[in-house]
Request: fold
Amino acid sequence: MVTFASAAPVLPVRDIDAAGAHYRALGFAVTAYDGEAAYAFAERDGVHLHFSQVAALDPATSLVSVYLYVDDADALHAGWTATGLPGRFVAPTDTDYGLREGAHVDPDGNLLRYGSPLTR
Reply:
């Protein structure tokens, strides 16, 4: 039987270079693909995201979302909002299912939800 090792969502972006700069500022290491395709790879603490350039992308209609499990949602929110980056940032709140969750919508309309376990 085959064992899966990991997964990497592919996020559509309008401009690979702009998306790379945005995610670098969020703390990801970003590497552009050297081939003809407008594609890039991002990694932070073992979490991988991929980006594919879609020139006709309308951020207002994007349905892409990724959930990131982190150890401190408040610290992540503070660090990300301190960058002054464009996009929308939602402060973490406690949920009734045991997580403290926040979110960031990047300039291309990709929703990054993140959460950490509540300490009781």
Q: What stands out?
A: The CA atoms of residues 23 and 30 lie 7 Å apart. The first strand starts at residue 10 and ends at 13. The two ends are 40 Å apart (CA to CA). The chain has two helices and eight strands.
